[in-house]
Design brief:
With 491 residues, this protein is α/β, with parallel strands linked by helices. It has helices spanning 3-20, 27-30, 37-42, 63-66, 73-82, 104-113, 150-160, 194-197, 216-233, 250-266, 324-336, 355-371; strands at 44-48, 118-124, 164-169, 237-240, 272-275, 286-290, 302-307, 339-345, 385-386, 409-414, 417-422, 430-433, 449-452, 460-464, 467-471, 482-487. The strands form 3 sheets. It has an 8-stranded parallel β-barrel with strand order 1-2-3-4-5-6-7-8. The chain is globular and about 75 Å long. It starts with a helix and ends with a strand.
């Protein structure tokens, strides 16, 4: 069957399902959607950026774009290292992307060690190279490069090891991603490469905002590709980058969401969509903040996507890594405000995960092995926490906050238990939780017991007008955060 006929058939299936299903392709109907409990309980997942951009390993996963931006560092690096873009283009990295050491089960085993409950590989990045057997283009990992259906292997490994599986699609950005290569003599201009480089539409002079909205053929291709991912790989989480917020996408987003939610209901499988900015109407999907957080509790569940690296999502040769303690601190803060963290790693081109990233994930897993009951399946308390360190709202601020102190405390609840997570070790071994003062009325119930997770001995504690004062055992020390569990409903 030709690609055009296959695409038309896929679009017909979407509309047939939506005609018969619970959800219709409009915001009012989509507001019937409810976030699945697995997602609200999971709190922590792994994101994976991996593709041909991992071969040059320079600057970031946007190398595919920047190598065609005249005057950029990537452009200059590319010419000096590989030659001019009319002789060696991005497409020429694909045969070098062999993934010869990729082992899906090893990856998933590491994710389980990290304490993650779900993971989301990039199924297709802005570069237009699907990491799966996409029927709408020959430019994909099953037919070129590694010649393996990476997404199928990861989906199967996820189910063997009982982690929830999701995917991300960034195909929307392919509308304009390679526009720099259309401005000079490069392989982007060769019509034989259009299946990879896409329309390469021009941008405004700031070189960032596309000058045109995507047209109907592009939008229908986007819809067909995404719905095909849903049917064949059965992801329970579908993540999108920011450009789907463009006006032209709105009706297609509604068709896709209705289809996904109807398929999820038909299969009795809880599913969710992530979106940024105002791409979706509130209450119809899960809001996501890139490399940022919120300053207070959000009534509706939300998510942060961020990376172990400060300067890239994909593998590069000169990462500036965050520390595991700083990532754990952000995770705690996010969960206390009704959110989840999707933490990105970037494997090498051969399929191995850098040792530094493995170490960070294992450290997070060691912390969660002791403190996870204050994270998983919890919900926000009346206030998210207390302390001097301010965390602002908004994207691209994940390295802006000061280091947390021993006076920074975050709260979560589960059934009759209140958890107070202290974000740094006090020098004097004493913790005062001022939000639990017996005269503030945030917690009018009596506290029956106070325990330190991971420590078998009882604690000395008292409650008064200054707060709940807890003396840590003299032998106890923590490099980062630690947790008190309080049984809340005493007589």
């Amino acid at each position: 069957m030709s690609v055009d006929r296959l695409l038309a058939e896929q679009l017909r299936k979407i509309d047939d399902v939506n005609r018969e299903g619970t959800f219709a392709a409009n915001w009012n109907s989509l507001r019937q959607y409810s976030i699945p409990s697995w997602y609200e309980d999971a709190k922590f997942g792994i994101f994976i950026h991996w593709g041909p951009y991992s071969v040059p390993a320079f600057e970031s996963e946007w190398y595919a774009r920047q190598m065609y931006q005249e005057g950029s560092r990537a452009f200059q690096h590319h010419v000096a290292t590989y030659g001019t873009q009319n002789k060696f283009g991005y497409k020429d990295f694909i045969p070098m992307f062999k993934a010869e050491k990729f082992d899906a089960d090893e990856w998933v085993s590491l994710f389980k060690q990290s304490g993650a409950k779900f993971f989301v590989p990039v199924a297709e990045h802005h570069d237009g190279f699907p990491m799966y057997d996409c029927p709408f283009t020959d430019w994909n990992a099953a037919r070129m490069g590694p010649k393996r259906d990476v997404i199928r292997e990861l989906a199967d490994a996820a189910r063997r090891q009982h982690l929830v599986f999701g995917v991300s699609s960034h195909h929307a950005e392919n509308w304009w991603f390679y526009n720099g290569g259309a401005a000079f003599d490069s392989d982007v201009l060769d019509p034989r490469n259009a299946g990879l480089y896409g329309p390469a539409q021009p941008c405004h002079p700031n070189n960032w905002v596309p000058a045109t909205q995507p047209n109907e053929p592009f939008l229908e291709d986007w819809l067909a590709r995404t719905s095909d991912l849903i049917v064949r790989y059965e992801p329970q989480l579908l993540w999108f980058d920011w450009w789907i917020s463009q006006p032209a996408f709105k009706p297609y987003l509604q068709r896709l969401a209705a289809y996904y939610y109807n398929i999820g209901r038909e299969r009795n499988r809880g599913v969710a969509i992530n979106y940024k900015d105002d791409a979706f109407a509130e209450g119809t999907a899960v809001f996501d903040i890139e490399r940022g957080q919120l300053s207070d509790i959000r009534p509706l569940f939300w998510q942060t996507d961020t990376s172990v690296s400060q300067n890239s999502w994909s593998y590069i040769s000169d990462h500036k890594y965050k520390t595991a303690d700083s990532i754990i601190g952000d995770l705690i803060d996010i969960v206390s405000k009704n959110g989840a963290m999707l933490l990105n790693i970037g494997p090498r081109a051969d399929g191995t995960i850098p040792e530094e990233e493995q170490a960070i994930l294992r450290q997070i897993g060691q912390w969660l092995a002791i403190n996870g009951e204050a994270i998983y399946s919890t919900r926000p308390w009346k206030v998210f926490g207390e302390g001097p360190t301010r965390v602002g709202s908004g994207s691209f601020s994940d390295t802006a906050r000061s280091a947390f102190t021993s006076r920074d405390i975050r709260f979560t609840v589960k059934n009759d238990r209140l958890y107070a997570i202290v974000l740094a070790m006090p020098e004097d071994g004493k913790v005062v939780i001022r939000s639990l003062s017996n005269c503030l009325y945030l917690h009018p119930e009596q506290i029956e017991s106070v325990e330190l997770l991971g420590h078998p001995r009882g604690l000395d504690w008292s409650r008064g007008e200054d707060g709940l004062t807890i003396q840590l055992p003299p032998e106890f020390s923590a490099q980062g955060a630690f947790t008190f569990r309080m049984i809340r409903f005493g007589s």
